[in-house]
## 1
Amino acid sequence: MKVIAVEPGAGDPVIEERPRPDPGPGEVLVRTLRVGVDGTDHEVVAGVHGEPPAGRTSMVLGHEAVGVVEDANGTDLAEGAVVVPTVRRPAAEATSHFERGEADMAPEGTYVERGIVGADGFMAEYFTSAPEYLVEIPEELASLGFLVEPISITEKAIEHAYAARSAFEWAPESALVLGNGSLGLLTLAMLETVYDYDRTYCLGRRDRPDPSIDLVESLGSTYVDSRETPVPEIPAVHEPADLIYEATGYARHAFEAIDALAPNGVAALLGVPDDWSFDVEGGRLHRELVLSNKALVGSVNSNRRHFETAVGTLAELPETFVDALVTGVFDLEDAERAFADDDTTIKTAVEFADT
Ligand code: NAP
Ligand code: BGC
Ligand code: ZN
């Protein structure tokens, strides 16, 4: 079978031939339909996040997959069921986090992430998985199933952000998304259409015309250019935000978000920046967090429950938004186009089999 493999930090992903995997006991064989590409995949390709399985220099890429059960192998899953795999697997023995279905809260070192850290991903014509890591989705969502994983990332982050505000009557009205990449835009659409925020803002650093700015405005949201309005100035120019969702990976934003929050607000941090040292006004920001009851919540990965919620969210997103978000779905022969990193590309996927 064909796979898309990468040697992190050593060049572009390439198509390779690998033996089709046999499902082990209790595992199913899945025929891959589509696999999405996100900022993390670009970070894996560049060698700045993740690593291949121990003892290897290359790995199969891809963690945003949708496929069809080809061989149920005696499990309860039906052949033909459309499924989306979760990303984390135990590094060795399943720990209590996995046993509780909370792999997303497992400490580093106790898990691998398929296509990212220590395990092959899903950019292969077939993959195997235990059914507990496969979430069934309706057949009519098969062509967009690669969006379930990134949506689940935001379901988790929002759940944790709201949990941090659950001890009092919190009635958020305004939300600010930092980042106009695929994760930021998906989240903006969720906050506008599913979470029903009155006013939303999305930060980027692009000149018009730009498809991501068009998308922000088509959602009824306000585009904020970080070159004109740095994050700490957003409250003065627009308004302070009750909820902030950081999806730039720009490390200063984690701290600048404190100034952009409204009193009692919460910022969810999603970006995975490189090491970077810089000065912050630590005393003032610490005081601001305390005296204004503000919260910062880091969030990574997502568990099966978030995937299940994400399926419903995907069905609710406006078709016009999704059509504009997904700028390309490419056959294997054209797969390099799915990894383009230019201003016309928002969300892409590689197609392994017809949906
Ligand atoms: P992406 O496509 O690279 O999006 C990042 C966006 O942020 C880009 O559009 C970039 O603009 C913009 N940006 C960066 N610095 C900026 C600045 N200073 N001012 C304004 N805009 C800025 O990546 P993604 O897939 O959307 O993911 C976003 C981040 O979340 C990445 O760091 C990724 O690693 C992380 N992530 C985390 C999780 C998790 O579980 N925590 C899950 C998925 C992704 P330009 O394109 O114009 O440069
Ligand atoms: C993936 C998550 C993963 C995170 C950190 C994200 O792009 O969607 O599943 O936990 O990267 O590796
Ligand atoms: Zn991802």
## 2
Amino acid sequence: MARITAGVTTSHVPAIGAALDRGEDKSDYWAPLFAGYEWSKKWIAEERPDVVVLIYNDHATAFSLECIPTFAIGCADEFAIADEGFGARPVPTVIGHPELACHMAQSLILDEFDMTVMNQMEVDHGLTVPMSLMFGRVESWPVRVVPIAVNVVQYPPPTGERCFKLGQAIRRAVHSFDEDLNVHVWGTGGMSHQLQGPRAGLINQPFDHAFLENMNANPTALRAISHLEYLREAGSEGIELVMWLIMRGALSEQCNELHRFYHVPASNTAVGHLILESPLDEETT
Ligand code: DHB
Ligand code: FE
């Protein structure tokens, strides 16, 4: 049986990908940021997940403003790297797991989450920057990926509560797939940041630290955060944090925090990173 064994969250700032691609990761500005992922890279090399269910948001790349699915699941064999205006990042094509993805699409839709099925989709920095942070520069990615894109770009995004429940449904979907697979679930984006308007540059460290703490200590408190609260406390792009709640919903109720990192700023963003180990609970054994 497929099993979710761990969850990873991380911010997905495009400038991080550019720094790595240009070999600037040892610079004074970037070295402290990349240092926070050294432990994670060693850990994941030992964990060797077969598949990552990677929750991220598209930034008007695969989806223009003409068509915006709330939740989309990538069922293709592979996903090309998008050109976000400066050429596609020089990273390997992302290899999918169509059998697991199609099973998940069926399970999620019958579980009353109306996923949009993507049989072709280009992926942007929301997906590729976390891959680079966790695996570094590689010839080919060492995992297969089931991408799940969430709309947080055009109002109205889904609520945090709805996202947490989608995570729980992802857990049911993965755990009913009849193949031995070690599966990780990642949630990308956040933490506090605002890229536009009079409050551009907003960062709220107390809010971010409380969010990091409650991911394991009290996820119930995070489920109740409203759109207005995200906007007020974490800035207009802080809403990306709802994707962390999908990851959290997909894990066991009791998790072990293995690694936490927080760094301000990277570009305009407060970078947060968490690794939670998800023990197999009664329901899955
Ligand atoms: C930045 C952060 C993001 O999450 C994003 O999608 C784009 C830009 C930034 O801080 O520059
Ligand atoms: Fe973003």
